[in-house]
């Protein structure tokens, strides 16, 4: 239980964020009042600049799941799951160089909208449904679960009561203010979240006495491999280095380049350069989570071995440690009153930003890709109202899913396990659609249907019959295998059902060559997207080499 001062700080923060969200959203819509009310609500009137895009991308990605589960993974397996953070930088480079300019030039409001223009209506419908379902499960329900665990431990409030209150408050400014409210609050929340994470990292570092004492304890405990991010074949984690480099791109391209919840911030960019630089800015920020989210968990492991952190409360009757609560233990034992309130506010930031981003994406998808299909002449006001209702219903479904998702031993692994079975067909049709001119509409539709069915079947087999051959395949490699099958399916179906030749002068929705999107000169100086992409690429290669 935290003290009244810390509780006051956390409550004032929540009130402040709700106020800022409502004020910014309503103010923006009044200031930019026009005939395009839907565009202002869902895409912020396409006025977003690169700093806000980068911070919002990061905030939508980072949630309580990351703060709680990355610390848990640091405690259990060391820096290994930091791969999900650093590999994201490569996906964001792809987003900046190839996907973002494509989306901006095509003028789409949603990613299912792009699939219809590139392929057909059936592909759009399927992606819209899958995107809404994935946003409910991945972006909201898992975040609510992680947030509920922490809030229950810190405040002593029932897990479901606390997340219902927080999610309803977040829904208020998200549903009322639209994307502008989401992006403005996310920018504030990112800063608060980073400050909170840095505070707990410094506290753990100070308590441990620095890097070398930690390394010494790991050596004595025979756990020095916890410092390695690239593990050898046969590693007990089930995630050797080749699984990272083969499997993550399948997950990452879908998550960062083809998921409405994430890409919506890019679709609201002022222009192509802001979209590109904002994506790369997020890539640089993604370097931090390994040091401020994962490393504190590893410090907690060594602190507990040194007797400097009491984790007895996490042990069951058999003495087995349930590491889900390790972040809360660190907060309460390593920080003084006052700082605990700030870190609690940071946890609330992660929870609220994730919920707000996902709700806005769901509202956009349901309005543009579902409601407007059946009522094409609908007014902007009714379109916005339909989106608000959809967001409210999505929140209710997410809350209902929490008990089911709580069965995962690791929330972070559970999250990525779900993504690994959703992503392969979507990643396939987007990649081939953008880079292969011959990819046909029928091939995309069949690949999405068959690929999604395969993913669902494999997921069910893994859960119902874990001792089968399929059940022993790590989820990262399973994602890669499913992706390869989807690529094969789409290529074969394209030759069986070829696409008609585009009319002369028709607008084509694919890059004629990989170099075409790089012909744009971009801004001059250090802000040039090509320069930033090269710098980010070099930095990531060096970091992986250092922690290999």
Helix-strand layout with pairing:
Layout: H1 4-31, H2 37-43, H3 50-61, H4 64-77, H5 83-106, H6 111-118, H7 121-155, H8 159-208, H9 211-220, H10 241-257, H11 260-267, H12 272-285, H13 288-305, H14 326-334, H15 339-374, H16 380-405, H17 411-435, H18 441-464, H19 475-496, H20 529-546
Helix pairs in contact: 1-8, 1-15, 2-8, 2-16, 3-8, 3-11, 3-12, 3-15, 4-7, 4-13, 4-15, 5-10, 5-12, 5-20, 6-7, 7-8, 7-15, 7-16, 7-17, 7-18, 8-13, 8-15, 8-16, 10-17, 10-19, 11-15, 12-20, 15-16, 17-18, 17-19, 18-19
Mean pLDDT: 85
Count of beta strands: 0
Separation of the first and last Cα atoms: 40 Å
The Rg value, from CA coordinates, equals 23 Å
CATH architecture designation: Up-down Bundle
Major sheet, described briefly? none
Number of domains: 1
Instruction: Label the overall shape.
Output: globular
Subcellular location: Membrane
Protein name: Solute:Na+ symporter, SSS family
Pfam families: SSF
Main location: membrane
List the defining traits of the structure above:
548 residues, mainly alpha, 74% helix
Could you characterize the architecture of this molecule?
- The protein is an all-alpha fold.
- It has a single domain, classed as Sodium/glucose cotransporter.
- It is 74% helix and 0% strand.
- The chain contains 20 helices and no strands.
- Helix 3 packs antiparallel against helix 11, helix 4 crosses helix 13 and helix 7 packs across helix 8.
- The longest helix has 50 residues.
- The chain is globular and about 70 Å long.
């Amino acid at each position: 239980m935290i003290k009244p001062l810390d509780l006051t700080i956390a409550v004032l923060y929540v009130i402040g964020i709700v106020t800022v969200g409502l004020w910014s959203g309503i103010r923006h819509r009044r200031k930019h009042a026009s005939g395009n009310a839907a565009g202002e609500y869902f895409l912020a009137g396409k006025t977003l600049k690169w700093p806000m895009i980068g911070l919002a991308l990061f905030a939508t990605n980072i949630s309580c799941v990351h703060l709680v589960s990355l610390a848990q993974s640091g405690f259990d397996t060391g820096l290994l799951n930091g791969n999900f953070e650093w590999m994201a930088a490569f996906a964001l480079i792809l987003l900046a160089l190839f996907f973002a300019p494509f989306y901006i030039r095509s003028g789409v409001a949603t990613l299912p909208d792009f699939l219809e223009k590139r392929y057909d209506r059936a592909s759009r419908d399927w992606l819209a449904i899958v995107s809404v379902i994935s946003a409910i499960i991945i972006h909201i329900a898992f975040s609510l679960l992680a947030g509920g665990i922490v809030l229950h431990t810190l405040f002593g409030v029932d897990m479901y009561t606390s997340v219902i209150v927080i999610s309803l408050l977040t829904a208020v400014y998200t549903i009322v203010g639209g994307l502008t409210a989401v992006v403005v609050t996310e920018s504030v929340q990112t800063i608060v979240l980073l400050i909170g994470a840095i505070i707990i990292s410094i506290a753990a570092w100070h308590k441990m006495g620095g890097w070398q004492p930690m390394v010494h304890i790991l050596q004595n405990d025979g756990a020095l491999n916890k410092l390695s991010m690239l593990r050898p074949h046969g590693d007990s984690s089930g995630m050797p280095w080749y699984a990272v480099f083969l499997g993550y791109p399948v997950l990452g391209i879908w998550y960062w380049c083809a998921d409405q919840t994430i890409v919506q911030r890019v679709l609201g960019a002022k222009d192509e350069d802001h979209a590109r630089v904002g994506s790369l800015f997020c890539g640089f920020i993604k370097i931090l989570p390994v040091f401020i989210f994962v490393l504190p968990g590893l410090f907690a492991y060594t602190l507990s071995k040194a007797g400097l952190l009491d984790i007895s409360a996490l042990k069951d009757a058999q003495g087995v440690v349930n590491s889900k609560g390790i972040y809360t233990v660190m907060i309460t034992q390593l920080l003084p009153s006052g700082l605990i309130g700030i870190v609690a506010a940071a946890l609330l930031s992660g929870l609220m930003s994730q919920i707000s981003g996902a709700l806005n994406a769901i509202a956009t998808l349901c309005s543009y890709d579902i409601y407007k299909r059946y009522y094409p002449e609908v007014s902007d006001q009714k379109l916005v109202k339909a989106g608000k209702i959809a967001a409210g219903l999505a929140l209710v479904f997410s809350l209902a899913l929490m008990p089911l998702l709580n069965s995962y031993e690791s929330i972070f692994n559970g999250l990525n396990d779900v993504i690994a079975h959703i992503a392969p067909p979507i990643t396939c049709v987007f990649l081939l659609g953008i880079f292969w001119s011959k990819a046909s509409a029928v091939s995309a539709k069949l690949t999405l249907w068959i690929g999604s069915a395969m993913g669902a079947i494999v997921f069910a087999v893994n859960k119902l019959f874990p001792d089968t051959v399929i059940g022993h395949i790590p989820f990262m490699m399973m994602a890669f295998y499913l992706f390869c099958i989807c690529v094969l399916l789409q290529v074969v179906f394209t030759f069986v059902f070829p696409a008609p030749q585009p009319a002369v002068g028709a607008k084509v929705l694919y890059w004629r060559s990989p170099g075409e999107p790089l012909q744009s000169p971009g801004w001059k100086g250090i802000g040039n997207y090509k320069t930033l992409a090269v710098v980010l690429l070099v930095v990531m290669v060096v970091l992986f080499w250092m922690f290999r």
